[in-house]
């Protein structure tokens, strides 16, 4: 968040502060984008949805997303940490999808962004704009008590959004509840993979961690993700490898070992099959892009 905002807890800015980030990306904080004017679109996870004026976009930490902003668009971006929003919610950001909505109803806005549009009617959007204007003013001055005021305004915005789209959120929540047992099993598997990527993992290991039979897990993965266990494991290893290439100075051999490959050459071959470049070439291309972004006027908007 320090690379995108002036404050680590909460920050809000208008579109003119930084040019938009036009490629899919993710970050470890919550984000709300408020479209004031324009006819763009947003990609969140695997879903592409409209992002016209009067629409809010709710982005969960670590969820891949990108929002297009055609010329003439006006928008506001709000970034905030989990500890700022809910200091009582002691859950890893990667496990937020396991939090029941009865504990944190506002999470539904972020969890269900892929499945619905949060487009406000004019009268309700006027309330959104009023809250956003107050946030901008309060964040600009940052005096004694400002954080409490900003948190209150943020909670009002989230509460207003929950009430405005209550029917949609309840419908999606009910549908989600029907899939809870399978979802929880898959989450246990994904969590197990994340925590043991450096090890020699098998379908039997993952099934045991999720209290499932290997045959049931294999069928569940195919049904819910369209992937085999090996395909899912490789995908997660490649994702983690990209994170380490982007955000660490570890050598390729070290990264290969960290994501479960004993042989650097085999890791390089699988990485090239996955992303189209060798690990070194991918890292070099990313660094060139980052250098170009730093040298350009302003910085990324996300």
UniProtKB/TrEMBL annotation:
UniProt keyword Transcription regulation, yes or no: yes
One Pfam family matching this protein: HTH_18
Residue ranges of domain HTH araC/xylS-type in the record: 187-285
Species in which this protein is naturally found: Curvibacter microcysteis
Protein name: AraC family transcriptional regulator
Gene3D superfamilies noted in UniProt: Homeodomain-like
Signal peptide as annotated in the record: none
Keyword Transcription: yes
The entry's keywords: DNA-binding, Transcription, Transcription regulation
């Amino acid at each position: 968040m320090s690379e995108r905002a002036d404050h680590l807890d909460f920050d809000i800015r208008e579109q003119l502060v930084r040019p938009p980030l036009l490629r899919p990306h993710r970050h470890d904080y919550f984000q709300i984008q408020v479209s004031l004017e324009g006819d763009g679109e947003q990609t969140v996870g695997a879903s592409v949805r409209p992002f016209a004026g009067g629409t809010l976009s709710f982005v969960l930490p670590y969820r891949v997303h990108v929002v297009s902003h055609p010329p003439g668009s006006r928008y506001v971006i709000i970034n905030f940490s989990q500890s700022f929003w809910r200091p009582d919610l002691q859950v890893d950001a990667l496990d937020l999808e396991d939090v029941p909505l009865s504990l944190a109803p506002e999470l539904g806005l972020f969890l269900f962004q892929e499945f619905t549009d949060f487009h406000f009617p004019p009268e309700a959007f006027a309330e959104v704009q009023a809250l956003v204007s107050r946030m901008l003013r309060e964040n600009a001055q940052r005096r004694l008590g400002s954080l409490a005021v900003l948190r209150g305004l943020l909670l009002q915005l989230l509460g207003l959004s929950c009430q405005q789209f209550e029917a949609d959120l309840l419908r999606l929540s009910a549908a989600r509840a029907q899939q809870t047992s399978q979802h929880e099993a898959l989450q246990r598997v994904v969590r197990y993979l994340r925590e043991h990527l450096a090890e020699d993992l098998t379908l039997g290991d993952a099934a045991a961690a999720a209290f499932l039979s290997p045959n049931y897990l294999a069928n569940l993965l195919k049904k819910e993700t369209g992937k085999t266990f090996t395909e899912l494991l490789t995908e997660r290893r490649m994702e983690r490898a990209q994170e380490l290439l982007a955000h660490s100075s570890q050598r390729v051999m070290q990264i290969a070992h960290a994501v479960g490959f004993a042989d650097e050459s085999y890791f390089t071959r699988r990485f090239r099959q996955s992303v189209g470049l060798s690990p070194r070439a991918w890292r070099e291309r990313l660094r060139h892009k980052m250098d170009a972004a730093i040298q350009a006027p302003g910085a990324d908007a996300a």
